[in-house]
Design a protein that fits this description.
Helices cover 59% and strands 13% of the residues. With 334 residues, it is of the alpha+beta class. α2 runs antiparallel to α3, α7 crosses α9 and α9 runs antiparallel to α10.
Amino acid sequence: MIGKYFAERISWITFYIFLHLFIIFVAFLDSAIPLKPILYIVFLSLILFSIFLIFRYKKETFFYKSLEAREDNLDITNIAGPESPFEKIIENSIINQTELLKQSASIGRMTLEQEKDELLSWIHEVKTPLTAMHLMIDRLDDDLLKSHLTYEWLRIHLLLDQQLHQRRMPFIENDLYIENADLEIIIFDEIKTLQSWCIQKGIGFDIQLDVTEVLSDAKWLAFIMRQILTNSIKYSENADITINSYIQDEQTILEVKDSGRGIDPKDLPRIFDKGFTSTTNHRDNAATGMGLYLTKNAAASLLITIDVKSELGVGTIMTLTFPKRNEFVNITSM
């Protein structure tokens, strides 16, 4: 701050020094003016000026130090009171701008909340005819047509479900209910939903659950499994998907292994990034790049760690490591 203060006052200091040098120069040229007394006066003046600068530094920088130390938020209560008319102008400007930003942020939040509610309402409205459509498809006699329509219905269902959870994600803490969730029920329910797609692609399941119960939120855990299974099915063909659960270091581990095309090593660090789609098949316009992003966020809220191992042409292993029971203290106390 000292350097900034002197940089701000450099023109005044320069003018002051120049003025005294000018007085000495005039006294030097004019023999009628005694030089030694002038030098003495200039010396005393410089000492007084230095003391004045030190005193004014503390007084003039107090307001600006409080601005510099202020956190980057809309709280302006910690700003020191202005000491000069210029500082008062700055304070008024900051207060006015902060109020405008608060109003704008409040309006933005209200608009966003309204849009979220409208979209959620729309999604729930769409689910009604979608359910009716599924019942109609089930009554079809043409197995080939039935299979194709069921697949397209499933795609719409999964996209709507993903959009629904995406809108709920910012408020997931308010939606969590930690309980003993049955892994077997969750996994088999998701497989049943994806059954028509699996039959179409010739995909089976090899399931070995040594642990069938975990402490988690059943609804959000089902969403996580849905996204992982959807990815495994999407990139697999005529192969089994293996699902295992076991205990390791007092923690439950759930593995989902497929024999699909695998993930390029350069893509692995980015697969959970928002909007990222594979560089292997970059022209896949159907990919939204949101599934694994939402999965990672939901898992983080449930204290579940997701690890991925993959090899091109061999397959992918998704490993979910569930937290120990005592790690849920913070969540269950909400």
